[in-house]
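INFO  loader      accepted 1 record
INFO  loader      residues=143
INFO  predictor   begin
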Amino acid sequence: MLRRMQKDAAANGQTHARKGEFHKVGENLYRYSSNDRYYAVFRVNGKLIWKSLKTSDRELAKRKLKEEQEKQGKVDPEATKLTMSELLDLYEKSLEQFDNKTQATRTCILNIFKRTWEQSLDVPVQNITAAQLELWLASTRRE
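INFO  predictor   done
INFO  writer      dumping tokens
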């Protein structure tokens, strides 16, 4: 898998040359030869994740790998039931941590979204597709 990635990079004309190589040292665990750092490599929902474990100690890397896999695999069951309206409310509450100008800008964008979103806001977030969001974005850019 790694050699294929390196060949693809060379074929695409990328000039970046790595100083070292990744070596598989265990299940989902790789070590980069130039700095001896360990990396976790695993899939979440079909997406390949490469995460630096920021250590050169193998035993610590194994523990961090396990923690990272557990952290990435956890999904709050209640979060999957959120509606768009509830998500927007949570987002609006999270704006309090920002500076006043940032709050104003993001609140303005939020209000535009609420006003121009053609679908129902009571739809579960998990049912909203990227295509729907892209259509909304394209329509607001035309205005």
